[in-house]
Amino acid sequence: xxxxxxxxxxxxxxxxxxxxxxxxxxxxxxxxxxxxxxxxxxxxxxxxxxxxxxxxxxxxxxxxxxxxxxxxxxxxxxxxxxxxxxxxxxxxxxxxxxxxxxxxxxxxxxxxxxxxxxxxxxxxxxxxxxxxxxxxxxxxxxxxxxxxxxxxxxxxxxxxxxxxxxxxxxxxxxxxxxxxxxxxxxxxxxxxxxxxxxxxxxxxxxxxxxxxxxxxxxxxxxxxxxxxxxxxxxxxxxxxxxxxxxxxxxxxxxxxxxxxxxxxxxxxxxxxxxxxxxxxxxxxxxxxxxxxxxxxxxxxxxxxxxxxxxxxxxxxxxxxxx
Length: 322
Ligand code: ATP
Prior knowledge:
The chain has helices spanning 16-29, 40-45, 79-91, 103-112, 140-161, 176-185, 199-208, 229-239, 261-279, 299-302, 311-320; strands at 3-8, 33-37, 49-52, 96-101, 120-124, 163-169, 189-191, 216-221, 244-249, 285-290, 293-298. By secondary structure, the protein is of the alpha/beta class. It folds into two domains: 3-139 and 259-302, 3-Layer(aba) Sandwich (Rossmann fold), CATH 3.40.50.450; 141-255, Rossmann fold (3-Layer(aba) Sandwich). It has a seven-stranded mixed sheet with strand order 3-2-1-4-5-10-11, sandwiched between helices. It has a four-stranded parallel sheet with strand order 7-8-6-9, sandwiched between helices. Helix 7 links the parallel strand 7 and strand 8. The chain is elongated. The N and C termini lie far apart (57 Å). The structure holds adenosine-5'-triphosphate. Adenosine-5'-triphosphate binds at residues 9-11, 41, 72-73, 76-77, 101-105, 107-108, 111, 126, 128.
């Protein structure tokens, strides 16, 4: 392993920079040349390669976003695009690649491996925590803390006005952000794609809790089957017109901000492990941390979306809420 490339891809997540810093500094320590690729797979296609060293990653461990920028590349979805990307990797004599991204980025790497023999190792950079083979993805902890911080503020105003708030959080296919943040803010109900949302049951719970609490917060994952927060709030408003109901969509605020201490530590460990994995000859695997230990999961398995929600958590939520 003489020269490696590193890039960030898909949605950005807090901690990607800390991971990048670990990749670059571990490679430098082992006398491996490092090049950064800007703008994800698009940059690989458009030859946006540049040399990186210890100094190029100074003072970024605490910064959200990604200094390498990121992209969702339509061109890489085509064989023509992937051919161009391969030409550039060969031109730059790249022996291994670290991809920091989510399930789509690893799907792309797998597809690429049909024509490209250069080994790829992935670091799970996504706020969604929807990858198999790691307890926490890079950015997930920060995103939860961002939601908790925002909903605490909403709770203040909800309590002052005796209001019912529906707060929509990110999670198209996974309700993990909603579930953990919902527990953290003491939500009265948490609606997630993994469990059936019954509006009748929700209304009953709200009616039953009418006297016990003046403010009510319902956390809704954007991918919930009953529709987003606006759709559900409309149904509730019709049936409980005396509730003063409001909707807040937290949106992209959840992707930004300085990474939490946990995200900085985890992403540093993963970046460090990714370079050493390439040196050991590993390919097409994702680095993860399970029960505090580093382990590697083949991309095929990592992207399977079979992460089960902990049934104890769901049971607890039902007992602790309304
Ligand atoms: P996040 O979880 O934050 O959304 P992600 O890595 O899943 O991050 P995607 O946009 O889904 O983000 O994927 C990143 C990129 O990977 C895509 O824009 C595309 O260029 C590439 N990619 C995804 N799937 C494929 C595929 N089947 N074939 C080739 N490239 C792919």
